[in-house]
């Protein structure tokens, strides 16, 4: 095949169809950017899960003197030394428990101070208001229920809390956003495909003279279809390129600068540039292949032998 | 070269078949006129030769190949051995004369050196030497048809199919085109030409095949356009 001939045909086709080509590029770019964004979001959620689930515990809060008066579960008074020993011993007997750590009221007070510092509420809190607790680390964080049923309601236990619940809301939100992004992506993808099919059809129609002659002199269907497929692939490639730029710019403004989440949420370890870069080849490849396949399918209908 | 064995062709949505039980044979190097009124099946006959349509019944052999058994992807190879000329020339208006002719070679992947040699040669043959760089719009109808013939012949086909090539031309220009087709025929290329032009058929005295309502009604060596009584 003569490359120069094919290239010039592609150039002519793209210029003739400039507005349609532009529409294809934009829709491919948006759908692929959403696709890449959704992939990155999923990765972000999973790194955060790995990081935080490793740190979070099941906390068994014990009754203190103040609770004995206010909370119904502590009606039998503050926890006794014997009860504490019993709880700790039972915890250590459980297979699913990896480690148990006792946090005294004083330690809890210290942590609280560290976390909330000089805020107004921190200044009125006193050590005896803090609860003693066992921080239980599970081999499998999903097995929280077992611990909860075993200890909730026991004498001296105020409550059993799974700290994952706090994170779960955040993860649910991120997953929800992810699904929404995928949904919009699906819509954009359909629009992109329809635009490609239409562009190819218009392109094939405007060149029916050429393709008619090509058929008559015995050009192979591959040769006849190639310029159209390459045209679509080229537009898709540009769209994929734009999508890559959008992803890079998106990470830059969302995490490093502009909105700068990295500064505002220092406890979260955000995905790095390497994660973004790793997605780009996939985005480019889909940008190249999807329109080419769509064009091929469209041509089977409009350019018969 | 060409053999029709009991060929019928009907199109969907049309009650009357376009061709009915046509059998004939055309030898290599023949010059054949295909005559008949509009709707007699001439175009269908040519479309079957080009394998733009397949016969509904019977067998069509072109260049020794049974076209019914020829798979789609082999059709282009078969068409490279055919040349086609139409009443409306079908030139590309935005390409020069030379580019139009070269197009037929470019799209089947001929090397550039070969194209550069073949195009001036064939343009000389059709009498357009020196007009390589003109645009089709600047040429007369007769000259445009010569470009189309050059394009059809540049790949040296075994068979040249012409569908009313003089239909848009005045009688004098038509004579020139016929002389050209005759010259091409003398190089050994088989020519099948559908026409309404009585004068031409009567003058040339070649084989005449007449179709009427899809049936073969006359096949006459050295024939004339109408019936001889």
TrEMBL record, chain B:
Top-level taxon of the source organism: Bacteria
A GO molecular function held by the record: transmembrane transporter activity
Signal peptide: none
Alphabetic keyword roster: ATP-binding, Cell cycle, Cell division, Cell membrane, Membrane, Nucleotide-binding
The keyword Signal is assigned to this record: no
GO biological process: cell division
Cell compartment(s), UniProt: Cell membrane
Record InterPro entries: AAA+_ATPase, ABC_transporter-like_ATP-bd, ABC_transporter-like_CS, ABC_transpr_LolD-like, Cell_div_FtsE, P-loop_NTPase
Family annotation (SMART domains): AAA
Membrane topology: Peripheral membrane protein
Phosphoprotein listed as a keyword: no
Entries under Pfam families matching the protein: ABC_tran
Name of the protein in its database record: Cell division ATP-binding protein FtsE
